Amino acid sequence: MNKKVARANFGKDFIWGISASALQSEGAHNKDGKGVSIWDEFVHQKNTVENGDNHFESANFYTHYEKDIELIKELGITNFRFSLSWTRILPNGTGEINQEGLDFYHKVIDCCVAKGITPWITLYHWDLPKELESQGGWTNRSILDWFEAYVKVCVNAFSDKVKHWMVLNEPMVFTGAGYFLGVHAPGKKGFKNFIPAMHHAALCQAIGFRTIKAIDPTAEVGTTFSCSYITPYSNSAKDFKAAERVDALLNRVFIEASLGMGYPTDDLPFLRKVAKYQLAGDRELMQVNFDFIGIQNYTREVVAHCIFTPYINAKLIPADRRKVYYTAMNWEVYPEAIFEMIRKFSKYEGVKKILITENGASFPDQVEEGKVADEHRINYLNAYLEQALLAKSLYPKLDGYFVWSLTDNFEWAEGYKQRFGLIHIDYATQKRTIKNSGWWYKDFLTEK
Asked: Is 447 designated active site?
């Protein structure tokens, strides 16, 4: 394994970690008082998830958390980012607290701390309670109150042990895929759903920050944004304009709202429809002085002009059609993308610190003779880290890196077809096998 970059190059205080999420890895979807989430319902609908898969058992972190956290320690990883399940804590979204849910997360946090692993908690990673969705979910402005109450419960419960919080995971993805395209839970479509969901999520990321800080002013609080480097398919003016619109939608909406810049309506005039859902003072309410932001990058997207896509007039050209090297997700392996995203977000004056909170790749891993020889993933991580280091030398706001993901798990609409983990899961037996990439990460982290 040829290392292109060494940990020491990033500096002794650089943060290194691994990420996971509750719905994707916990399993135990209806155990110990847990309520029903939108994904618990969505997976029952026809043709929503590859092969009819569901997350009901997944990697069963709920049962195997001690073993998995011990594996994190074995790999020399000292920071673990994971999310809380809203319905495990508040089964109906509001009201009565499920003590068994709080107890579970206390055990997870205590286990991390006992093994010298710092917990980084994401408060919302897409598992909205069904009961709240029945009242409109993210399209209902009441979500501001529901979310604030949920955050208060979590922070009051864990603030003596947890000092690093992330408010939302990729708001553009859960609003876009869930409330515009309908390919994720709750399966809603159209701008009439997307616009209010987007606006309320932008408000909630600020409300979450202020709620945490009010309870624990010493906490370090951020949020995470999905981002892809966007380039035009050709040198035509129409393709360049299409790329600008897609970049504005995917990469600018939520960060610029949080910085008090409003929405990028000059490039995306359809966003002016948000006026129907805005109240006086919303622009100021959205503004938030995050301690850090998390950016989550995997690839670049190549965009062409398309008259058949309303409002955006653009389409993505898939990697396989462009005959480039790509992962099992049909995402191009383009390491320069992470450099470009670090540069892009660093240029916002209001951004104080950047963490890469997700980066990784899915490949068709197989266990052979007790090993998983995933050299493609090692090469991917090496190449992306090389670009991250180059970016850090020019844009010193970069302060940390978390691999996605700890274990193979339920990959949303892709089901179990995709494997991103550094640890292979045999879903029939729940056997864990550390992949070569996991051992590579250990070597990287422990090398002097």
From this structure: no
The CB density around residue 122, as the number of other CB atoms within 10 Å, is 25
CB atoms within 10 A of CB 108: 24
Q: pLDDT tens digits for 217-227?
A: 999 999 999 99
Cα separation of 185 and 141, whole Å? 19
**83 pairs with which residues across the strands?**
122
Residue type, 154: C
Could you say which of 244, 256, 332, 358 is catalytic? 358
pLDDT of 164-204, one tens digit each?
A: 999 999 999 999 999 999 999 999 999 999 999 999 999 99
136-155 residue pLDDT tens = 999 999 999 999 999 999 99
**Cβ-defined contacts of 102-111 (< 8 Å, 24+):** 102/157, 104/32, 104/62, 105/157, 105/158, 106/157, 106/158, 106/161, 107/65, 108/65, 108/69, 108/82, 109/158, 109/161, 109/162, 110/161, 111/65, 111/66, 111/69
Q: Distance from CA of residue 378 to its chain's centroid?
A: 21
Please report the pLDDT score of residue 3 as a whole number: 56
Q: What is the pTM of this model?
A: 0.98
Gap between the Cα atoms of 310 and 294, Å rounded: 30
In whole angstroms, what is the distance from residue 132 CA to residue 148 CA?
14
Q: How many CA atoms lie within 13 A of 260 on its CB side?
A: 9
Backbone CA torsion sign across 20, 24, 28, 33: positive
> Pick from 270, 368, 348: which is nearest to 314 by CA?
270
Give 403's strand partners: 18
User: Which residue is associated with the tokens 């499920």?
Assistant: 98
Max intra-chain CA distance, the chain: 63
Q: What is the DSSP string of 48-80?
A: SSGGG--SSSTT-HHHHHHHHHHHHHHTT--EE
Give catalytic status of residue 358 as yes or no: yes
- What is the enclosing helix (H) or strand (E) of 82? strand 79-83
**Given 170, 301, 332, 411, the catalytic residue:** 170
